[in-house]
Batch of 2 targets.
Target 1
Amino acid sequence: MNVWGYWKCPYCGEVVRADHKDCTKCGASVPNDAEFFMDPTKPIEYVDKELENDEANWLCSFCRSQNPAQAEVCENCGALRETAKGVYEVKEPKKEREHEKPNKPKKKRSRLYLMAFLALLLLFIGWLYKPVTREGEITGFEWDRSITVEEYMKSRESDWYVPNGAEVLSSSREIRSYRRVLDHYETKTKKVAKRVQDGYDISYKNLGNGQFKEVKKPKYKTVYEKKTVKEPVYRQEPIYDTKYYFNIDRWKAVDSLFTSGDDQNPKWAETDLPTSVESPKYGDKRQAERKETYRAIIKDDKGNEKKVEYDYEKWKNLKVGDKIEYKTRRFSDDPL
Ligand SMILES: [Zn+2]
Ligand SMILES: [Zn+2]
């Protein structure tokens, strides 16, 4: 919808509604170069539908009068419209432009800074965590070895199945696992954010003929609504199964034969125990799993000592005084 703008009489200063061609106070005619504006102190007055006009006035090149777009000849001097030099130039209020323009590049620029900062941070973290090679000198050695000792015995055990050779003593129904099942629904009230229209932002666009177009932009606000929802409530339902209690003959770890040293002559503990026993009896013992670790003591270029683990083949050929390289992190002294 269009509303009436105003012009200001240059003789008496009266603000005159644009549908009047003469000043309502002193009778002077609207000047040729009159500018139309909205006056916030005056009420908004809508243009009758049949008078609505969205086209700017044209300016007579002979007498500089403003003529409505629909006029074929100048209403003042009769000159043909074709000789017109142009139409009323709408001067947009400057305020809006000043508000918008300097802000946008700033936002873009700050986002750019943030991206650059994140990129640098990633590079820095990559640099920090990149393995570095340090040099050190071997000053000593360490080793340890162990042999697990197992004994053949009657073992009391339980399981969900009966293993071969087991002597079942009892069984019972027991909870083996749980299953999540739907128990019921619970009604809950939730606060839900909702965007709703809250009137309009109204602005007026100068049409260059004394009329202004009313531009309505809907405004929004956030309101919170209470909403009832049904939420499922689950419970854990036990699943039963048969558990067996039984005796079974087994080799079980009962001891560990441990040796260690700070030289390069590792030894296994001396033992007469066999590594395998045919048709064992209760109380028989045997050697089982063997474990071994070999370390070199290294003094780094800062004078700190640390231990680096090696496999045996490499370790036995190292010598005190050997320069070795090891990998670590930039912020740490510990070998990787
Ligand atoms: Zn006047
Ligand atoms: Zn004219």
Target 2
Amino acid sequence: MAGGVFILGREVEAFEEEWARFCGVRGAAGVNSGTDALSLALIASGAVRQRRQDEVITSPLTTAYTALAILNAGGVPVFADIDPQTYTLDASAVERVITPRTRAIMPVHLYGQMADMPSLCEVAARHGLTVIEDAAQAHGARIEGKRAGALAHAAAFSFYPTKNLGACGDGGAVTSDDVALIECVKTLRQGGHAPAFLAGVEGRNSRLDEMQAALLRVKLQYLEKWNERRRSLARIYDETLRHGRALQLPSARAPQSHVYHLYVAQHPRRDRLRSHLAAHGIETLIHYPFLLHQQRLFQRPEQGALPVAEDVAGKIISLPLHPYLTEEEAREVADKILHFES
Ligand SMILES: Cc1ncc(COP(=O)(O)O)c(C=O)c1O
């Protein structure tokens, strides 16, 4: 506060450098949310052009903000089915919904689990498509030696307070190896700034403030430790619930590929299990209660059924998990689930 600069100042610049270094990319641009990070990455990469009805393929099992970001950019969200083990986009299902209007694929690293980036990037390369990672739930996750944020043309992060790296308010960032793309996001985030509108660029107001950047710089130092803590709590659930009869546990594509933003299992009697846990004072949630391809806002006549996502949606249950949950608490949750199953 004594510095007297509150928006897009030295703290934001320093955080952008540190976040780019952490992700292993050449640049990062701070913006005001994960939704704007996705949308500006789609525009700055050239994947979605204004008023052209460009199609972007994504997952039906994610927050509505993923698809809203595509609409906000001026594109059309198209949904493909998911893999039942990892809950992330299935590359062969993606390939089946590609049309001449498809311009990009937006995989979501859901619940902290990396999508199958090698297969998705291979499909994208064959069809000349841009790939934008929705890494809002996967800060620090790694696959094949690379971190989320460094696996595609660009990636978007959210720093919503509950994320693995969360601010004390809203925030987001785009990361990319393409320095011109990052510079373009920096122009677009200040659409009312003379250089942008005089050049005829249709930007918006999406700035990261200094307070959030300063707080994120401090919290970034703990991110690896917190992710490790999330993994060790997930191991407790994995080990104790392995013998559950009907419970299907989440699986990690590779040990470091999951940062357990959420621990999401499946149970055929999910709602009764939730009531049983609630009766013991244990809160669970459903991420997400609605599949996006079934929502009026995103419906299109061409959209087919997505049987895997539709099957999984009725069974998913998010168990309590955050870095400050104690091991005893995790064991107690597991005990109550085993009790329900016995
Ligand atoms: C997967 C995913 N994508 C996008 C977003 C949007 O981020 P924000 O809430 O910062 O706009 C979120 C978080 O809400 C998210 O979890």
